[in-house]
Task: structure prediction
Amino acid sequence: MSSAPLVDLLRGEVLEIAPALLGWTMLVDGVGGVIVEVEAYREDDPASHSYGGPRGRNVVMFGPPGFAYVYRSYGVHWCLNLVCEQEGTGAAVLLRALEPTHGLEEMRKRRGLDEPRLLCSGPGRLTQALGVSGEHDGLPLDAAPFSFFPPVEPVPAVATMRIGITKAVEQPWRFVAAGTRFVSRGPTG
DNA sequence: GTATTGATCTTCT
DNA sequence: GAAGATCAATACA
Result:
């Protein structure tokens, strides 16, 4: 299974995992693209859902690495995280943007858009384009419908301040692939 | 081009 | 009852 290296990677430290995820290709049911923007969250991060320990929807974040944590944002959108480190650590990486490469037509149909740039350039857009929803919460990442492929060549990561949150915004835990234009707003977007 | 607001669900107070 | 890891539409300049 091509996803084994991914689960291996996710066992490390989340602040090292996040930039290392850039350049990976992620597909859900054959539809997806290259990861170009991610954000790290930990239990000791006031902005993280895992802050304060496991309770409610966040229990998946405290499970073993290599699983998906999907939650609803503002009652409108879904957001997809990859659980990291070890069982009980409450660390995860939020996928914020992809560069669409597979299943473009399917994504355009789901998003109702023509502009490839806007198909996956944001956490909510990404999940809609890939068809990810609450049904995927807690699913293993090394089994269908998920598939991951390592970068062909290393992608330079740029660390920036975080976006869309109100606590610990100054932590440079948002990582963007250098030079891409398929990200939500920021220094390289 | 930037600024503001509505949509609508889960969790916490 | 209020806030939040968002997006898209609207109102301005």
Remarks:
- Chain A has a mean pLDDT of 94.
- The CA atoms of residues 124 and 136 of chain A lie 14 Å apart.
- Residues 14-21 of chain A form the longest helix (8 residues).
- Chain A has four helices and eight strands.
